């Protein structure tokens, strides 16, 4: 199994206890010691919890962050994301910036992206995708 970057939707399913995602994560954790997410996914989850006033969930999520790997944007991932944007825009088929940046992080770190949002990400060449909800 290749190393995985969790997209925000998969991490959300994981945190909510989705059985298929928990099973896939458990299998993954047999090989790797921690889950990997992007700082953008961290932001998306934290901002959602803040908006709901979910203080206890936010506390638990911060603990989760300390126990797992968080990847930040790099100049390489930004350049990859910008290139993807240009290619998709020329084809009239753009996706939102967060998805572009997460894809750039995955590609620059040679990671497979675990996502349930295949419709958007399938458009990005060179991005390997896994869907842990299936």
Overall geometric form: globular
Q: What is the helix tally?
A: 7
Rg over C-alpha atoms, rounded to the nearest angstrom:
15 Å
> Spans with pLDDT under 50 lasting ≥5 residues?
none
The N- to C-terminal Cα distance equals 16 Å
The secondary-structure class comes to mainly alpha
- Counting copies of identical and different chains, the oligomeric state is single chain
By CATH, the superfamily comes out as 5'-nuclease
Question: Which strand order does the major sheet show?
Answer: 1-4-5
CATH topology: Rossmann fold
The largest pleated sheet is described as: 3 strands, parallel
CATH architecture: 3-Layer(aba) Sandwich
Strand share of the residues? 5-15%
- Which bin fits the share of residues in helices? 55-70%
CATH class: Alpha Beta
Query: What is the mean predicted local confidence, pLDDT?
Result: 96
- The helix-strand sequence is EHHEHHEHHEHE
Counting structural domains, the number is 1
Number of strands: 5
């Amino acid at each position: 199994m290749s190393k995985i970057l969790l997209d925000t939707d998969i991490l959300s399913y994981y945190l909510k206890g989705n059985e298929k995602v928990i099973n896939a994560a458990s299998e993954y954790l047999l090989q790797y010691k921690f889950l990997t997410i992007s700082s953008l996914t961290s932001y998306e989850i934290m901002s959602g919890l803040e908006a709901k006033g979910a203080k206890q969930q936010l506390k638990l999520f911060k603990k989760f962050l300390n126990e797992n790997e968080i990847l930040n944007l790099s100049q390489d991932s930004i350049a990859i994301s910008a290139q993807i944007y240009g290619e998709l825009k020329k084809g009239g088929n753009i996706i939102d910036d967060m998805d572009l940046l997460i894809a750039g992080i995955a590609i620059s770190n040679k990671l497979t992206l675990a996502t349930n949002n295949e419709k958007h990400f399938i458009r990005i060449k060179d991005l390997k995708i896994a869907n842990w909800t299936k």
